[in-house]
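Hi P.,

Sorry for the delay on this. The queue was packed all week, but I finally got your sequence through. Input first:
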Amino acid sequence: MKPQAKRFSLRTKFILATVASTALALAICAGSLAIYDRWSFNEHLKGELAVECRILGSNSAAALEFRDKDNAREVLSAVAADRRINVVVIYDKKGDELVRYTRPKAILQFPPSMSKSDIQAKGKFVSVSPVTYHGEFLGTILLEGGEGDLSDRTRSYFLVAGLLMSIAVLVAVAVAFRLQKRIFDPIAQLVTGMGEITQRKDYTVRIDDTGDDEVGRLVQTFNEMLYEIQIRDNSLELRIDERTKALASEVSARRSLQETQIALEEALKQANAAVEAKSLFLAKMSHEIRTPMNGVLGMTEILLGTQLDELQTRCAETIEFSGRNLLEIINDLLDFSKAEANKLILQSVPFGIEDLVSEVGAIMAPLATKKSLELACWCSPQVPVTIMGDPGRLRQILLNLIANSVKFTDSGRVSLDVTVTQTLDSMVTLKFEVMDSGVGISDDQLSEIFQSFVQVDSGRTRKQGGTGLGLTISKQLVELMGGSLDVASKLGQGSKFFFEIKCEAVTNSKPIAMLKGKKLLLGVSDAELKHRLMDLFQFHSVETIASSTTQLVSQQIDQGSPLDFVILDTSLEVSDGLQVEDLLQQARNPLTSTYLLTDSSNIIPSSQAAHLGLSGVINKPFVAANLLEMMIKSVKHDQKHPEKPTPETFGSRTPHILLVEDNEVNVMVASHFLSTLGCTFTVAYNGEEAISAFEVGSYDLVLMDVQLPVMDGLEATKRLRASKEPSVRDVVIVAMTANAFASEMDACLEAGMNDYLSKPVSQADLSKMLNKWLYVN
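Then the structure:
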């Protein structure tokens, strides 16, 4: 084929190239338009189906309100004329089907009953619309459609496109034949002239100029070559000409270099502007997120300071734990330096590992209870009380792993175990294991489980949701801690995720001497829970008798041997008709402390616990430290109460504070904290009001928000520092800012502020700040 192509004339090659390129371009355009047309048709169809779904939902509101199936069928009969609609189902507010319409050839079906959380779009042409009336949720309507006449439309499109392409190619051939004469006739003339000059050796002959195109320039160049040959003996003029060309080239190069430098400077300005805009955006986002978080955490802290029952206290503590965890994640997302460096830096602070496990269990317990799963979070007695590390990142890993296990477990249990595998001087190796009885993972998916956006099962993940990033992030964090996150699983037999990290033990766990030799009766049916508790009590030298049924427990109580403690599980196996309540009555003894283990779905209030003669109630997933603390209190007969802040915290006098804050929720939170700490205060809602407040009173300290209306906190501080009155000029000003960036802190100090508090502000933080500046002496 190639030798034949070489024999083609330039005219033929030009025509073939023109026709081929035209045909290829037309084919690409036609194909692209076909793809776009199909996509546009599908998007238009989806939009129309969504509108149709909302209209049907609006028309069926009355039928749902009165559960009028006949009226609902009459509404759905209107879709029979629309061939694009295959299935329409109306569900009531409970998720039960009221009525449905199904076209005979419909493929996708919907179940007759679906929970509210499961009613969602699950197909390419599925639309979901809630049915409401005056803001009240009445039900949901699901609509599934098809592509309709798309196949006929596509066939017609390609038929017309093929015909138009054929016509276009024929036109291209005709145009190419016409244009090739204008291009190749001058070339033929040049070839003829060159032949004559070669034969006659007459270098004074010139070829006629044919124009300014490439052929014309070729003729001009040939004529210049003849001229150069004619004056070849004039070497001086030739060197001048060469030098002139060299200088011209140098000038052009310098000009190009200057243009490049100008372009680089402009690009640098744009990059700096983009970086500055990004910083401003992050600062704004930091403020907007931290401001409501201050209200959430502040109100929760206030709530925890009121009289609550055990259920309310646990719910409030869970809100606080979750809020703190969310705040830590927000801090990392909004940390400008970490984002610019594209890496995470782990903290190294002392923290209680069992307290952290307790927080994780409290956060995940409601989700596990909702699915009727047993959640067990356990630290081995040998685990140090306090270690050095990053509690926020470790909490994030454990929450990701437990949430993943709960998500893919429909029945059974999910457990977290923390054990010590190695101890060397002050360094310990902790092993974390999260096990579940869920769906498991197949062998071919184990190698991909830690990749981004990978889920265990595509069908199930659509049901369960999730981004597929949790395990990937957890693995990266574990590797930053010097460990490796691994998984062991078989399909249908559950999974186990585990990792080990080395850390420094600050406070080691020691047996409690006060419990040594005490006698305890343990009534637990679950073998694993019994094993864990026996291990705990053995570590603390508590003499333990374990029974797995109510009858065996009753026999142990009847033996009359003195017992210091009795621990009963509400799920203890019942035998001979003996209930756990009967055992509680039987175990009543002034010298015996009785505790009840119960799950989070069966919380017992304090009043009921006292009526049953209980010394304490331990809710699952319980923390061993809490149980041990109750047992110690029983031995001491000394109930300890948490100390609350009092006015004496700040000395004998009462501080008067100026609170400058524009957010009403934050004003409520700060006001409560200041009142609890024994301070009097005045509220100003902007910078101008803060300045005016000094005209009518004096203050020991100013809590100044930075972003304020009318006049911001920085400007107000500058004006206060410029005052002629020493009491105003020298007042202590503490910034309260939701912007946690170092640049914001520097700006506060430069404006004349003495210190700053980052929102959300806790009562403990505020107490420390007041003590620092008001009672340093």
